[in-house]
Amino acid sequence: MNTEKSKTAFNKAKKYIPGGVNSPVRAFASVGTHPLFIAGANGSRIYDIDGNEFIDYVGSWGPIFLGHAKKCVTDAVKTAADNGLSFGAPCIAETELAQRICDIVPCVDKVRMVNSGTEATMSALRLARGYTGRDIIIKFEGCYHGHSDSLLIKAGSGAATFGSASSAGVPEEFAKYTIVLPYNDVDALERTFEKYGNKTAAVIVEPVAGNMGVVLPENGFLQKIRSLTKKYDSIFIVDEVMTGFRLSLSGAIGLFGLDADIITFGKIIGGGMPVGAYGGKKAVMDFVSPSGPVYQAGTLSGNPLAMAAGNTQIKYLQEHTEIYDEVEKKGEYLEKEFKSAAKKNGVDICINRIGSMLSIFFTDKAVVDFDSACGSDTEKFKKYFNEMLRRGIYLAPSQFESVFLSDAHTYEDLKKTARAFSEVMKIL
Ligand SMILES: *Cc1c(COP(=O)(O)O)cnc(C)c1O
Questions:
Q1: Could you read off the pLDDT of 179-192 as tens digits, one per residue?
Q2: For residues 365 and 367, what is the distance between their CA atoms, to the nearest angstrom?
Q3: Which pLDDT band holds residue 159 (cuts at 50, 70, 90)?
Q4: Phi then psi for 32, rounded to 5 degrees?
Q5: Is the pLDDT of residue 157 over 80?
Q6: Residue 401 in this model has a pLDDT that exceeds 70
Q7: What digits encode the pLDDT tens for the residues 52-78?
Q8: Per-residue pLDDT reduced to its tens digit, 191-235
């Protein structure tokens, strides 16, 4: 596979952009190669500037649930663009998308648009702190909620209750307000609430973790967060930036029948345009400025192009709910093919999957939290990734990410993928 043009483009990009990319994982650092520069994409296919074609399982990390360049979505954006790119004043499309989200997602009475998932979770934390008058946040190791200071915190060493910054530039003082617990650990959660429940503003969780690879919540885990946050008058934030409108039309909240106070969105609700949102119960959301004392604003928030893309993509999903059954079947097909090829060739893997999200961990153990995810063989993943890429399969360039299936993936795509997988298992 010739990728010379991408290589040259990357070298040039590195001169002008830190690390050559505008988001670190794109640099392909953990798979030992240079990133591919993308010329365009259509349906399930993505094309690099050297003219190579791939079946894309990244889907821009989630938003492209209907496939690339879905005509109704791009048409809506074009029409909106011809009408002006931004007004900095209310437009009808904002209310339309807000209403759509409120109508579909349980627990959401009101919603505020922002420009990214990071902004959504950051604002949700401020709202939870403002509403409760408390400072402590509880999160779970391996969950990613964007890059705001309070959330770039990893578990402290040893018996330390509070976390430590996982990025330079985050004051250690901030880490004092974030407690990081193992995902799925109900006992740790109970112990922490006994001690800090009265000071805890919020618990934030990925209802299905997708940012340490896919890790499913064990029975009772999310329900326990709900009951404890309720008991201690803390806010339960369900971060559906990845899972919203993907696991079901009403996300994980709808699928699991959860109750929450604030839900954060991003990715799919923008159809590929930069967007995020946070919404929740009326009493909580009315704390947001200008109706309440918690300040949050955005020059480009509710941007008409983003609203047009979001409205069109979500409306399409409302009118085609069969897509959720179809991606489930596609996911099931891939899982089965992958498992049998790995078994046949004696390669130890653990596959975690729910609907259109799937991860292959190179380990013989069950992956239920960050520690067990870290037990997988990343050298093997590196080889697997590169061999799949050479065979025209574009996967996320890290062990700790999900495969994202879309409505545009055909069974021909899946068969080709399964064939490539089977070949790669033979040489792994
Ligand atoms: C992607 C993601 C975010 C951050 O969204 P950005 O738009 O990248 O800022 C937050 N939470 C979860 C669960 C995500 O998957």
A1: 999 999 999 999 99
A2: 6
A3: low
A4: 65, 30
A5: no
A6: yes
A7: 999 999 999 999 999 999 999 999 999
A8: 999 999 999 999 999 999 999 999 999 999 999 999 999 999 999
List C-alpha distances in Å: 365 to 345, 351, 356, 360: 17, 10, 22, 12
Active site residue 233: no
224, 267, 330, 382: the active-site residue: 267
Q: Kindly give the distance from the C-alpha atom of residue 232 to the centroid of ligand 1, in angstroms, as a whole number.
A: 27
Mutate to test the pocket of ligand 1, among 60, 113, 122, 145 (most ligand atoms within 8 A of CB): 145
Count of all residues that appear for the chain in the document: 428
* Whole-angstrom distance, CA of residue 35 vs CA of residue 14: 12
Q: Is 117 in the pocket of ligand 1 (CB under 6 A)?
A: yes
Contact 334, 418 (CB under 8 A): yes
Report strand pairing: 164-165 vs 153-154.
Answer: antiparallel
Ramachandran class of 107: left when φ > 0, alpha when ψ lies in -120 to 50, beta otherwise: left
Give the nearest ligand 1 atom to 243 CA. Answer: 13
- Is 371 a residue of the active site? no
Taking the CA of residue 61 as reference, the ligand 1 atom at the shortest distance is 1
Residue 162, number of CB atoms within 10 A of its CB = 16
**Sheet with 357-361: strands ordered across:** 350-354, 357-361, 403-404
Instruction: Give me the catalytic one of 57, 144, 177, 384.
Output: 144
Question: pTM for this one?
Answer: 0.98
- Residue 144: active-site member: yes
pLDDT for 357-387, tens place per residue? Answer: 999 999 999 999 999 999 999 999 999 999 9
